[in-house]
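Notebook B, p. 112. Complex prediction, attempt 2.
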Amino acid sequence: MTASVLVPFAILLALLGSGVWVGLGLSGIGILSLEIFRNVPVEKLLAQSIWNGLSSPELLALPLFILMAELLFRTKFIDGVFSALDPWLRNLPGGLLHTNIFGCALFALISGSSAATTSSIGRITVPELRARGYEERLVVGTLAGAGTLGFLIPPSIIMIVYGVLSQTSVLQLFAAGILPGLLLALCFVGYVIIRAKLTPSVVGAVEPIERRALWALRLSGLPRLLPFLVLILAVLGSMYGGIASPTEAAAFAVFATVVIMAFEKSLSVRTLRDAAIGTSRTVSMLGLIIASASFLTMAMGFLGMPRAVSDFVNGLDLSPLMLIGLLIVVYIVLGSFLEGMSIIVMTIPIVLPLVTAAGYDSLWFGIFLILMVELAQISPPVGMNLFVLQGLTRKPLGEIVRAALPFFIIMLLFVLTIAVFPGIVSVIPDLVKAG
Amino acid sequence: ETWDLPLAWPAENYISVAAGTFAAKVDEATDGRVEITLHPGGALGFKGPEMLGAVRDGLVPIGDMLLNQQIGDEPLLGLTSLPYFISSFEELAEFEAYFRDQLSAIMEDNNQKLLYTIPWPQQQIWTKTEVTDLASLEGIKIRSYDRSSTDVFDSAGMTPVQLPWGEVIPSLAAGAIDAVATSSPSAVDGSFWEFLDYGYPTRQTWNLNAMTVNLDSWNELDEADQKAITEVAKTLQPDFWQAAQDEDARNMAIVEENGMTLAPISDELRAEMAKRAAPLRAAVLEELGDEATAVVEGFQSR
Amino acid sequence: MIKAIDRLSYALAQLSGLAICGIVVMIVVEIFLRKFAGISLHFVWEYSVFIHISAVFLGAGWTLRTGGHIRVTLLRALIPRAFEWISGVIGLAIALFLTSAMTQLALGYLTSGRTAGTTTDTPLIIPAAFVVLGCVVLTLQITLRLLALLLGRAPELDTTGEDDPAPIMD
Ligand code: NA
Ligand code: NA
């Protein structure tokens, strides 16, 4: 049993270290592990699980939001977002770094995916912040941290999956995500402020502007945010106005983006072609990783990996907080090499009973799990948001991991906070229920 | 032998629970020689429509499948989805008995042995408004679960909408759809009372699951173990059918406790809906071919 | 030869991107029809899923050629040439295995005539054929990459095929 847990891990390190493309490498780990330990038709399993992994309707929001990001990048108004936010945020210690956090939190309101949130906001902010001389590490770090809000702030694809699997009300889950999402965003803001106070050099050049001129700038910049607000309204309006389901709302957002582009005359055959190619490249990269990850998950299942973990935990006879502490460690280990959706699917059946027995409810565990998945998104060697950020910045993975580390730790402390104060999760759902 | 059993349903679902009971009894009956490891919640990545092929090709030694999801491979497995063909749970049991041998034969053609069947509770429609006659169904946007139900609701003047389950609750909450067709356990899973007020047992189609084992894996067992396992399956099947009924009753009670109004649909309305769906049924049968027609006619004149 | 395969890869990537635009068109039409005409298009979700799975693979070759697939490059600085060879050969082996697996799946769908069987009668061979085509082109691109290494040429193109590529891949 220990061999069938340790050997795959060794294969993982070797294969990914070899520099093979992650989308293929993850499959390679599963192939080798199964060939070594199990007498199963590996080729057929690979084909079937790749097919199944990608033929999930829940995944469709991802290509839709990627396409939207590609289109947004080619709009004119997106350039104005910075000049619009600049006068509002420049006096805050940390300056425009906060646009990463506020941008992601806002975008999370229309996106159900954290990778799409990271890439959508990052592709706008990274070049701008670079040009203004902000420290690269903090630029990447804030994005890594805040991008994961895509999962925590509703709507959230992964919450829906969890809700269905754990038989928890999805609406209650959505409500439960709001306060933790907000608080986490504030933690990030706080960290940036502290860093900026301690080391002013991390912040790019900010020329002082006289007070009255600043307010003039703030007000005159607002119309430039209008298209962005229209988009958020298009998504929220179509969804909460009873016109579209969450994924359909994503398609509607793309449609609204195209309409805005037509208005500002940035729509052309060339932009469409470029957006199509760009979408194809990102969808292909992420899709291949998701497909491979779903095969790896299946392979782990065959090797009895999840069961080994649960048996181990059950044997320890822990207090509730110790159990949560241990789960955090386990999820960090799992999250280091598995993709978020797989972690949820694999562990719910094992862990949810353990957690409810310890006195937490399935709503709380949902938010806990979402946070653990967010951590997984930014933990090496396999972290979807790390890959997105790597694609975005072309920096070595190690540098991105280091940049994300402080935010990883903040999120970790935040998880401990909600373990000690579960009320943070339940207060809004309780209000919704009462009202 | 250790058999990995993928289950698309959550661990607490009664079908998973039944599979667990079966696994325990098999372990006992074979003195631990056959150990079935459950992988509930779709943990192995199998989703359903590929299960017949997965067991056939030995991707997994044993599998639990929703029969009418397998019509892409074996159209005859969709007979319980024939609109208004089976009218009650009792009739479903009779159909299972009538069709059993043929089902075993189909499974054998697909390199697997049928162990037991377990049904899903009756299908219902869950609505925001009261349903009294056809006019009250007009234009209701209802989430349908497969092709057959889609056609049935269409013929009744409703607007069936295809949505993945994950999209159903938010769509319901926001009003993109006004009704859902599913059985009572799903209604409880989705806390339907938060959005809907009425439940009606329309029973337009039925869902039946089967547990099958790959023949190559099966043939590796000695005769005594085979016989023991067959015996376990045979003994447990009635319990499993009862479990489905109990599950329905339990969930109906929960739904009612939470304030939903449950009512039977009138015989007139059911007759009218069945009449509207008649051409549909004929068309499906035509498509399924003579073999299916023979089964249907044989069953009806039993 | 290399040019021809690059051109094919590029065309397939374009097709895959347009296919995703097609998903948008279908869903938006569905939203409007459902809201204003009380009509729902039942094929939208299933077709969208098939388009997505096809799009992932159709774009894979071009994505590889233009450096879009992510990898861990920790050891590249240490042994640049060997690094490219090792990753290329391992990548080729996995890609071959994958192509063979997906081809067998597709052949199974072809011979059995299996259809989606849920809401539409779409023969599964149609999306599966696109998947196989994508796998073949991906494998070809890895092979060409090794060839380029052998000939001492740059393994990746310095364009992404866009006039103005978004920074996600820069
Ligand atoms: Na979100
Ligand atoms: Na990770």
